[in-house]
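Supplementary notes for students who missed Thursday's class. We covered one full example, reproduced here. Read the sequence, then the structure, then the short commentary at the end.
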Amino acid sequence: MTEQLKTQVCEACRADAPKVSEEELAQLIKQIPDWVPVVRDDVMMLEREYKFKNFKLALAFANQVAELAEAEFHHPSILLEWGKVTITWWTHAIHGLHKNDFICAAKTDELLS
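Structure (token representation):
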């Protein structure tokens, strides 16, 4: 099933686009098991922390995620620290989760394979 997400392309998202339902969330999260739904300021987001041996490797990964974001025209929060990168995906236009976030999370995981 993860194969299915990582091969999809984000669709343009407007402010009236539907957020993922509870049922969709339950199904989609199974496809990206290392990601955690979090709620900040009443906005549901997907988050994952990646660990690296040093800052240089973490920086290289953060740059790869930035390139992915530009290619998909969907932009996450990227927190870069020594040996660690935390990625948070959500759809700003709808203040919550859209299928695009799950697609990008799956593609983010693929950057390490």
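Commentary. The mean pLDDT is 93. The first helix runs from residue 2 to 6. If anything here is unclear, bring it to office hours.
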